[in-house]
Amino acid sequence: YLHFDDGPTPEVTEWVLAELEKHNIKATFFCIGKNIESPPEIFSKIAASGHSIGNHTFNHLNGWKNETKTYLENFEACRKAIENTLGAKNKVKLFRPPYGKIKAAQAKEIRRKGCKIIMWDVLSADFDQTITPEKCLQNVIDATREGSIIIFHDSVKASANLKFALPAAIAQLKEKEFCFEALT
Question: pLDDT tens digits for 105-130?
Fold first, then answer.
């Protein structure tokens, strides 16, 4: 399962969508609410392309550093940004806590609201500007197993590593007979 966190980002998300389309791959995008709103056309294109969408809070909040009330308000603000762009009938049921950090009380409330909390087992580390693009690719290839959830980031910060590692990872994983799906 290919996942993209922190977008949509005009400079990067369009490129990711084109790469996925080349290979007929559906992925899951965990989007930040403020990025959904500016510009909303890119976010709409993710949904129109048949990819799954998840909530990643409105401002990319670290759950460990925020009170539950504040965190849940930020979660709701992202949910509203999604529904305002795609329509109220589009209820997003997937949530990924930024940084993978969430308090038990926050997780309980988000699950109570009908969302599945989705973590990962393969972190590309494309956001880490101290690693090479080749190391980013190696992180993915070495750790991926059947059923893996692989995280990339459609952000400017991650773009140099992403633009090298994503096409190469897709090619190498396809050679190993992996197939790709979006979470639902």
Answer: 999 999 999 999 999 999 999 999 99
